[in-house]
Automatic annotation (TrEMBL):
Residues of the Response regulatory domain: 3-116
Organism from which the protein derives: Kineobactrum salinum
Signal peptide: none
InterPro entries: CheY-like_superfamily (IPR011006), Sig_transdc_resp-reg_receiver (IPR001789)
UniProt entry tagged with the keyword Transmembrane helix: no
CDD domains with a match to the protein in the record: REC
UniProt name for this protein: Response regulator
PROSITE patterns xrefs: RESPONSE_REGULATORY
UniProt entry tagged with the keyword DNA repair: no
Alphabetical keyword list: Phosphoprotein
A GO BP entry: phosphorelay signal transduction system
Amino acid sequence: MPDILLIMRQPGNLRVLGAALESHGHTCIGAHDRASVDQALSQCKALNLALLDVSGFGESVWLVCKKLQQTNVPFIALSARQQLGVSSKTLHYGAMSVLEKPIAKASLLQLIDNITQAEDNTPAPSARVLRRS
């Protein structure tokens, strides 16, 4: 059963990130639009986390954020530097953190571990924006 939902418009990014996470013991399911997000959320009741790449979603990204909140799936927003303003808004819509692309794999894996372990030992960590230096 997948434990991480990857929400990305670009199939190549989905494939690369999925492979990287699966090589570290995670199981992933991908979604590329609102309909596939809804389908994944209805099929996978035990998701620990979602990674949402905000690129290419336009205003529909807020509906995706709202759906993740309604289903109690914690999520991290992934964003290009030039979209950090938009991505920071995802914190208002429930994102636990924002990571700037390109994503540092070690930082992402550590953040995933922190969030999933915190979910086991609530309360959740505070929201924050992480920038790549």
